[in-house]
Design a protein that fits this description.
255 residues; alpha/beta; Rossmann fold; 2 domains; three-stranded mixed β-sheet; 9 helices; 33% helix; 23% strand
Length: 255
């Protein structure tokens, strides 16, 4: 415990309240596939609770990383089939170890974008932050991100890839692709038009060069009748926003 807490009762009470909330949130997952996740992995827990209310049978986890969000979604909406998309080979290997044998989950080792082709995925010193886009000044300054290498990846339009493999259309699309979210959506108009909900990590600051920002995602999804319904648990209030998870729901579905 920090010594400052001993002579600052208000700060102590605030810390205890935060810890109590986190214990309660993690307690909800006890005994599930997501029972071993940390607080940093469950920011969208409440957003998934809301999304579940509109009826979710198929989930697309785009930017699946090593599978932590997949475990959370599968624990909260166990009846849904889940198609995961992750291009970074090291993450694909880890995902397979965590989720590879779970029923109803398939992993597609491909990057998604607005056009079919190839690109180099820029790997950073924090691999979760790897992106098609170069790291911008804010990414260096706030998160200490540095490019440590790159790997070639195939990029596919989601609508084309889905049609070729005869995948069921999604009810919920989750997006966490480090600033490339709008490019993914542009390549998926059929999937977006069918979706009841989109859960996306959005940025208010340019952490990657030429990345999309919150208002870009809002405007694009509004054209498909999907509107901002809720923000993730850790979204700050009363101070500038950097990144957060946002849930978009199709108009008229949420009662």
């Amino acid at each position: 415990m920090r010594p400052a807490l001993l002579w600052n009762p208000r700060l102590l009470c605030e810390r205890l309240a935060v810890a109590s909330v986190e214990r309660r949130r993690l307690g909800r997952l006890r005994g599930t596939l997501a029972g071993g996740l940390s607080p940093g992995h469950i920011d969208s827990l409440e957003l998934l609770d809301i999304a579940k209310r509109v009826g979710i049978e198929v989930i697309y986890d785009i930017g699946a990383n090593v599978g932590t969000w997949t475990l959370l979604a599968t624990s909260l909406i166990p009846e849904a089939a889940l198609e995961a998309f992750e291009p970074l080979p090291a993450h694909v290997e880890h995902f397979d170890k965590i989720c590879g044998r779970l029923p109803g989950i398939r992993l597609h080792p491909v990057a998604l974008g607005s056009e079919n082709g190839t690109a180099r995925l820029r790997v950073t010193n924090f691999s979760d932050s790897s992106s098609i886009l170069p790291v911008a000044w804010a990414g260096h300054e706030q998160f200490g991100l540095k490019e440590s290498g790159s790997v070639p990846v195939a990029i596919r339009r989601l609508d084309d890839y889905r049609a070729e493999r005869v995948l069921a259309l999604p009810d919920l699309i989750k997006l966490d692709v480090q600033g490339y979210e709008l490019e993914v959506l542009k390549g998926a108009p059929d999937c977006v038009a069918h979706s009841k909900a989109v859960l996306a990590e959005v940025s208010f600051i340019e952490y990657y060069e030429r990345q999309c920002l919150f208002h870009d995602i809002v405007a694009f999804l509004a054209g498909f009748g999907l509107h901002c319904a809720a923000m993730g648990h850790s979204t700050p209030t009363g101070r500038p926003l950097g990144q957060t998870d946002v849930l978009f729901i199709r108009s008229g579905l949420l009662r």
